[in-house]
Design a protein that fits this description.
The protein is mainly beta and 150 residues long. The protein contains one helix and seven strands; from the N terminus they run αβββββββ.
Length: 150
């Protein structure tokens, strides 16, 4: 098999930028310790989807009490803050510890105007789902093309 190190590189600069952003997000917020760079033990991974009328953000928060999560919006930035508390009832000697506990904060820059009064959030099975409605002015508009004979 020939050696092709660049075969999966995106063909456009936009694609390359998206790939670099994805890689940086994995490093900074991939569930690994991100200290001392941002002061967090870990930050939950997210997925952001765009629909015609809204954005939909999924945040992985397994083991986090929904009452310990705060969602706020200022300007074009959505912020999710929370805390995953360590269980206090374990009495044995820890042999291995991989789970992360402590406070976290994720910020997401949204590309368009949103209707902040209609933001909603629900949490089920460890996934926080935030529905972020777009304003009427930021929704895509179809333009009718007039056919001119002649």
């Amino acid at each position: 098999m020939p050696f092709r190190p660049l075969q999966d590189v995106p063909a456009s600069l936009g694609g390359l930028q998206e790939e670099m952003n994805r890689l940086f997000d994995q490093v900074w917020h991939g569930g690994l310790s991100t200290r001392p760079f941002d002061g967090q033990e870990c930050a939950p991974p997210i997925d952001l989807f765009e629909h015609d009328d809204r954005y939909l953000l999924h945040v992985e928060v397994p083991g986090v009490d929904a009452a310990a999560v705060d969602v706020s919006y200022v300007g074009s930035t959505l912020t999710i803050r929370g805390e995953k508390s360590a269980p206090g009832d374990e009495q044995g000697r820890r042999i291995r510890g991989e789970r992360r506990f402590g406070t976290f904060c994720r910020t997401v820059e949204l590309p368009g105007d949103i209707d902040a009064d209609r933001l909603s959030a629900k949490c089920s099975a460890g996934i926080l789902q935030i529905s972020i409605p777009k304003t009427e002015s930021s929704r895509p508009k179809a333009v009718k093309i007039e056919v001119v004979e002649g």
